[in-house]
């Protein structure tokens, strides 16, 4: 059985390792110990912000997934809220076992409970399996996304 909870500082090393454990993450993350202080600072900022939640999925006491929920107030849609999902990972040993589906069903319910009108996410075009996964959950590629690296 998979359970979900907010991440603890003691989870940080495992989370960074999971972020780095794929071809794209290996190019941008650094799981070497000691962890960069930047990860510590980011974790503290996320956990202090009431509109951000860093969530982990656990099974049998092991971290098997992670994602970040950010709740954003908007003027559009009559001043509604949106939920942005970022940093999604399911441990490679658990893929194809329903962990991601259960995690997203849980996240969707959290967004509904917070009164969000919309749940949105982006996925790198180099991750076709992830894109198919999101489409199978009902997400629609309805907008063209843009990013500017700074």
What topology, given as strand order, has the largest sheet?
1-2-3-4-5
CATH superfamily: Gcn5-related N-acetyltransferase (GNAT)
Portion of residues within helices: 25-40%
Distance between the ends: 41 Å
Strand portion, in percent? 25-35%
Give the class-level CATH name: Alpha Beta
Structural notes for this entry:
About 35% of the residues lie in helices and about 25% in strands. The chain is an alpha+beta fold and about 150 residues long. It has a single domain, classed as 3-Layer(aba) Sandwich (Aminopeptidase), CATH 3.40.630. It has a five-stranded mixed sheet, sandwiched between helices. Strand 2 and strand 3 (about 60-75) form a beta hairpin. The chain is globular, with a radius of gyration of 15 Å. About 15% of the residues are buried.
List keywords for this structure.
alpha+beta, single chain, Aminopeptidase, 150 residues, 5 strands
Question: Helices, strands, pairings?
Answer:
Blueprint: E1 2-6, H1 12-20, H2 23-28, H3 37-48, E2 52-59, E3 62-73, H4 76-79, E4 81-90, H5 99-113, E5 116-121, H6 128-136
Parallel strand pairs: 4-5
Antiparallel strand pairs: 1-2, 2-3, 3-4
Short structural description:
The chain is built from six helices and five strands.
């Amino acid at each position: 059985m998979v359970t979900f909870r907010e991440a603890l500082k003691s989870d940080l090393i495992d989370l960074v390792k999971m972020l780095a454990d794929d071809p794209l993450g290996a190019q941008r993350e650094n799981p070497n110990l000691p962890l960069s202080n930047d990860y510590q600072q980011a974790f503290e900022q996320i956990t202090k912000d009431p509109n951000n939640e860093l969530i982990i999925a656990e099974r049998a006491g092991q971290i098997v997934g992670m994602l970040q929920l950010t709740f954003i107030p908007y003027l559009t849609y009559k001043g509604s809220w949106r939920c942005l999902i970022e940093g999604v990972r399911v441990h490679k040993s658990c893929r194809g076992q329903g962990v991601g589906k259960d995690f997203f069903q849980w996240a969707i319910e959290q967004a509904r409970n917070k009164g969000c009108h919309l749940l949105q996410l982006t996925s790198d075009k180099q991750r076709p399996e992830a894109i198919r996964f999101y489409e199978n959950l009902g997400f629609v590629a309805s907008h063209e996304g843009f990013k500017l690296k700074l």
